[in-house]
Amino acid sequence: MSNLPVFSTDGGQTLAYPLASGFTASRLGLGCMQFGGSWEAGVPISSGDRARARAALETVLELGWDFFDHADIYCRGKSEQLFGELIREMKVPRESIIVQDKCGIRFPGEPNGDEPHRFDFSREHIIASVDQSLKRLGMEYLDCLLLHRPDLLADPHEVMEAIASLHASGKVAYFGVSNFTPPLLDLYREAGFTPVANQIELNLLRTSLLDSSVVSQDRLPADGHPADGTLEWHRMRGVVTQAWAPMAYGYLSGREPDWDPERVGKTASLVKEIATKHEVAPEAVVIAWLLRHPAMIQPIIGTREPSRLRACHQALSIQLSREEWYALYLAGRGTPLP
Ligand SMILES: NC(=O)c1ccc[n+]([C@@H]2O[C@H](COP(=O)([O-])OP(=O)(O)OC[C@H]3O[C@@H](n4cnc5c(N)ncnc54)[C@H](OP(=O)(O)O)[C@@H]3O)[C@@H](O)[C@H]2O)c1
Fold first, then answer.
1. What percent of the chain has pLDDT over 90?
2. Is residue 328 within 8 Å of 320, Cβ to Cβ?
3. Which of 52, 243, 314, 322 could share a disulfide with 280, CB 3.0–4.6 Å?
């Protein structure tokens, strides 16, 4: 009898988080990183950015997406602020959406001028960050909080104290991490914390977390990454893999490549060819490639353009064959398989 957790789905449209009982989300999530427009301090939200964010929200709600990804740092808090305003303006019931936020990255100069860019999982910072995020969002609680990037100085027991306090106060329902490697996941698990999700960068042009599972004795994965095993760790324990930058920043669906043009160009051509065959937009193939992986990946899509959001949504209506999936993988990783 297998002990592997089961990722249940509802016809591919939704994803039940195995480690969070009753927590079901749309298979595709909207990343709200750019909602606030400018990342510069002191630059207000423009009417154009407000309109773009509203159009994105209206589009995904109509498509049935209910999952929204934030971080305290996105556009220096303006993304959370605008999202909260729009949700109220559009009269979207709070309980009908899932709001995920992140904490732990601190900008240089915050709060004092000479302080460096750093990561901070201290109890005080985690709790203060959530309080400020809730204030900007104008909400009472977060559905999920992710620890954004591993703090090298963190004490997992202290992190656990912060988590327990935020949970007990009703401010956060579930907890996850982002950009965590298997050794770190093990470390936190020893302290009693298994995240419901780990959000990592994964797309057709950033395949190193897959490449790490394709080592042969004499060969390192494509970009020289050491064996990693993140996706296997997730699968064994029921941790949802959230993919950030799932559209590969648009480079495979119309954006002119400004790096590695040969590899990007070849992959984009193949994406287009497969999209034509399935009668969908290229964005759908880029997202469907993630959905085809057995880790039950939840792409966190960052475009604000309604037409691109609809194009991504088409991914739910196709399934790539093994041959299509591997052809795309080979093109994207840019080196042959062993
Ligand atoms: N955990 C982490 O460390 C981390 C890091 C980064 C991001 N994230 C999350 O992941 C989400 C998605 O990441 P992402 O936005 O960086 O990557 P993405 O979803 O791969 O790409 C979206 C970006 O690409 C642009 N784009 C898409 N198609 C395009 C085209 N044909 N031409 C020109 N531009 C195009 C979009 O601009 P338009 O809006 O104009 O379409 C948008 O800026 C974020 O919103 C955030 O929630 C998490």
1. 88
2. yes
3. 314
